[in-house]
Amino acid sequence: MIQNENHDEYSDVDDANENNNNNSGSLFGLKEKLQKGFSSIASSSVGSSSSPSLEPRKTKKRTIHKESPPLLSTNNSEDENEDDNDVLQDIDINDGSSNNGGFKLNNNNTCSLSSGEDEGEASPPLLQCNGGESISLQQQQKQITLSKQSSPIMYGKINNDFKKKLEKLENNDQQEEDDMLSIDKMVGYAYCTNGEVLYWISIIFTAGIAFLIYYWFNIFYLNLRYKKVSFSSSNLVLVHSCDKRIETYATKSFEPRKLNEIYSKSKLIQLVDQGLDYQEHAQQHLFYGDNEINFPIKSIPLLLLEEVLHPFFIFQLYSVFLWMAEEYYYYAIAIFLIATISATLNLVEIRSNLLSLKKISYFSCMVDVLRDGQVQELESKDLVPGDIIQLRQNFTMPCDVILLTGQAILNESMLTGESIPVTKYSILSDADIQAYRNVSVDGFRDDTKDFTREKRSLLYGGTMIMKLTGGTGSGTDKKVYGMVRHTSFQTTKGKLILSILYPKKSHFKFFAESLKFVGVLCSIALVGFSISVWRLNSLGEDPKTIVLRALDLITIVIPPALPMAMTVGTGFAMVRLKKSKIFCISPPRINMAGKIQVFCFDKTGTLTEEGLDLYGILPTIYQQQQDTQAGSEVAFTQVCKDITQFDNYLFKMLMASCHSLSVIDDKVSGDPLEVKIFEATHSVIHEDHASHYISIPHADPMRPNENITYLEKFDFQSQFQRMSVLVQFQSNKQSYSFVKGSPEMLKKLSLSDSIPSDYDKQLAIFTEKGYRVLSCAYKPWDGPITADKDELRLKTESQLIFLGFIVMENKIKSQSPPTIDILQKANIKTIMCTGDNPLTAKSVAKQTGIIKKDSILFMGILDTCENADDGSVITWEHISKEKGDYHRLDPSTLTLDSDCSNDFNLIITGPVFKKLYHNYLATGSQKFNNMLKRGIVYSRMTPDEKQVLVEELQRVGLYVAMCGDGANDCGALKAAHIGISLSESEASIAAPFTSTVTDISCCPTLIKEGRASLAVSFKLFQFMGMYSLIQFTTVIFLYFIASVLGNWMYLYQDLWIIFPLVIFMGMTRPCDTLSIKRPSGRLISGAIVGSLVVHVLVCISFQTVIFFFLRTKSWYNDDIIDDENIINYVTTTLFTYGCFQYLIIAFTLSFGKPFLKPLYTNRYLFLTYLITLITSLLILFLPTQKVWDFGQLLVLPVSWRLTLFGFICANLVLSTIVEFSFYMYKKRSKKKKVQNVSLIYSKEVPIDPRITENSVLLPIS
Prior knowledge:
Blueprint: E1 90-91, E2 102-105, E3 110-114, H1 137-144, H2 152-170, H3 175-178, E4 183-191, H4 193-205, H5 209-216, H6 218-225, E5 226-229, E6 236-241, E7 246-250, E8 262-264, H7 265-274, H8 278-288, H9 300-308, H10 311-325, H11 329-361, E9 366-371, E10 374-379, E11 388-390, E12 395-396, E13 400-403, E14 407-411, H12 413-416, E15 422-425, H13 430-437, E16 448-450, E17 458-459, E18 464-469, E19 481-486, H14 492-501, H15 509-538, H16 543-557, H17 562-579, E20 582-584, H18 588-593, E21 598-601, H19 603-607, E22 613-624, E23 632-636, H20 649-657, E24 662-664, E25 667-669, H21 672-680, E26 684-687, E27 692-696, E28 706-717, E29 722-729, E30 735-741, H22 743-749, H23 759-767, E31 772-781, H24 789-796, E32 801-809, H25 816-825, E33 829-833, H26 838-848, E34 856-864, E35 872-878, E36 889-890, E37 895-896, E38 904-909, H27 910-923, H28 927-934, E39 935-939, H29 943-955, E40 960-964, H30 970-975, E41 978-982, E42 993-995, H31 1002-1039, H32 1047-1065, H33 1086-1110, H34 1129-1148, H35 1163-1181, H36 1185-1190, H37 1198-1229
Parallel strand pairs: 21-33, 21-40, 33-39, 34-38, 38-39, 40-41, 41-42
Antiparallel strand pairs: 1-2, 2-3, 3-4, 4-5, 4-6, 6-7, 8-16, 9-10, 9-11, 11-19, 12-18, 13-17, 13-19, 14-15, 14-18, 20-42, 22-23, 22-32, 24-25, 26-27, 27-28, 28-29, 29-30, 30-31, 31-32, 34-35, 36-37
Helix pairs in contact: 2-27, 4-6, 5-6, 9-11, 10-11, 10-16, 11-32, 15-16, 15-31, 17-31, 31-33, 31-34, 32-34, 32-35, 33-34, 33-37, 34-35, 34-37
């Protein structure tokens, strides 16, 4: 039995700001089918197994349940317990570097995760610890907090170790995979006979009400029917996740295992030759199960039962049965049909979404598997970690595989949304294999390979192999082998499916506070219940009538149509977004879009055009100085824009060969930037089984082409900011190392005497104009091709000779500047977050308007410093001196050292951001928070650093949006409150929103729709609350005279007035202008609650005056005409007046400025309002005898009708004044929200749980 708490219609994030994990991907054709998101289907259990070692130790045979929930089905580092007893003592899901961490079996039989670090070190607080011997991060920080006076040496040593450990964990690639687990603690349960008896007795004696309580609150069910026991004797395991979700896990035993991620090269070569034997495969299969992403889909009856047992549906059924008992058939049938149709449609959509997801996620194929030295064709579901498979072209990967031999080019668009081919390289070289197999060959070095660090060799499940080259064997019979690393839900694709099925639980204050408001209404209903019982009993009514009428008050105070009213605004917003070509897979996020305060943008492909054009080449030459003894110096020449006339031989060779391009279907494919550079050389790539070389034409057409072959290739990696190749010229057999990358990085790697003196000046000239600049360098190579790739790369990319710049032109999209201007006028801070050069990023930021013309800019630069702990120090350079160089930035606080109120911003590079972030975690210094407030351009940011930036902005209490287009943005898109992916094929499911219009004009549209949806939701909730309280007041007054509204009266008010108004109010469109103000995200706020209370008091006051004033009229009588005393003056008067009160409230709440358009712009609402107003006026002034008789109304004197109309006008005027007064109050209270982005950060930064009062505080350079 699984408890799901993800059914919140408004389950968004509050100011605490929870984040999503970094599991990115895309599923074609699924975008539009997921219009209502998968949060409602999270009750489906997903099957998987834990992760054993490739060579398991000898232990007792244990079985594991094959359908574990996702909280237990993530591949994390897990250690096997070697104790003889079956009690789970320690489950380590960390990186395996510590033996003291992981899960701890506490004294209260709960299992929780501890950091497990030695004293003096600390790790990020992945999970909170509970009791036992586990220790929390806060406790560790207390242990390492020492007095400077008492032990300064130990103080400094511990703090240095503390920071180094944090940096180590921050750079740990495996940490990204651990995010999926998110387990707080686990508790073992066993069946209890006494509890079973009490369970059934409570259900029988409460007529099934206890069953509903147990169903809604699963923890009560567990604690009654089960008892807490040790894991060895448990039948059920309760898993508490970090986001407060709980899952139950039925198992006989539980044995986590650690996946072997480190292999020696000799072991890998043995596996390439032999593969796993049958015994090893059977052992692995016992723990892992089948390699298939398959999850059970609940049957239609079970899904229907879950819909029927939902609290709102139960309340609607209660209302229907009660109304049927009161012979209120028409409205009861209407509500029943609405509830049934809604539940059926929801059921159909949930099941269709599950079936669509299962169809896309499930994949099976035949695979050539090497087992016991024999290649066999087996089904992919039989694969286990450690299996050796033979790869082939146009083959879709059934699991995650480490490439052992050869080279593969893959299409990863299924995961990243980018159709750019990605090249993967083997972790074993041909030289390694030959050296190992031929004992006479010297030089084999049996080092180890850590799979967690071999991402360039990892082939993800679900991706397609487009091309294979190389491999083991001879001639054309070369085989490319890979080792299965992850299977089933442990694969990247499996984690993506889990992230859709089980999204992280989040909270939005509107939904939580709406439940509180419903609780208040329940309290009012109980008061009304007591009053009605007392009054009706005193009037001598029979018990049945008393009970029915008292219970009917509950359905009046809490209207059954309330759930529909809470979601109608979001539904219409989704329809409008779809028309704007913005597709949504998470509807609750729409409301959150209305709260956005900070918008982060990627640069290339988002703010600028996707493609880059080659602007020109700026090469270097050696110039002879006038002083002949001084020799020559390096200088830049003129920019060459015609590459055909370019005579720098080596530079042209570099442009033609230093890339990751390949020929697929007779077309050069790869990164568009590299394609542009390559095509400019008019070279040709030749690829076949026998050879792989590049033919480059000479500038002199009379000379033959130069052919270049590859010796080694190192692809571009974000953390290195460069790529390199080792090539050999066939004409003279000379070898070279060609390197291409960021100007900052290559300047460090190049020989100083090859760098022109005006290097930085020339770079600034181009970058400040918005050009993208790549540096190029080379070195002659005469060394051996070593087996150690890291060592080889280090040698080939050091002591380089600088060649010059490649200048690329990246045009800004026409919609970028006006969209940025719209957002800034709405007081939304805009931030650029890119991997490009800081000066290029600054230039683009200025052109788009992210950086204002009068802004004072400081750029952080990481310089080397021998006295610093980590060998570097941050200096802040003033790069906007035209604004005056008298401004100085205080490096210790990142604030201006003067009282100047001028706007200033920071340009942050990735290394600076990383250093400040690590120092913040180590010391708790507010310098990092000040950087978040003032940072406006973040350059040279890796994908992980982009995600951290988004998460840290959320931590300080901001609602953050991210807009990007590439794979490097997936983590940030998932982490942000609102992630918008720009994709023509709707190909990125990493983000909740996808715009097929590939510019940022979709951002204001989404924000306006979010604000409109949020404003409509608030107004509908207010309207439904007012409707219920007005009708409640009317019924209470009628109970005092033993009367009640007739069925046709209820029907007219509920179905003719309220229902269409609620539906069409949700269709109100957003304002065309994005205002500075943002709608409140809180239902329980002074303005909203105050407005509601005053409106209620006004309506009650008018009804009270009318009730008593009517009874003073000379023509008034208390004659009982019908059995239920419906036809009388009081009932007719209060019914007629109540209809107008509903219309008055609808009119006053229709003012939605500055978020919603006026009432008259909503044609359906305006027409409905006019029709209901006209019919109500006809009932008041032009009644016919047939209408009065049919509606159970009594003819009112004309004078009294005119008096009622006067009351109606007075009520309208007073209610309008009340609403206008609160509008002016809110407007006046928001006057401080002028166009000043710094006010976004005016709130106090929330307490960071990672930082305690006892954290070590050190000054940071």
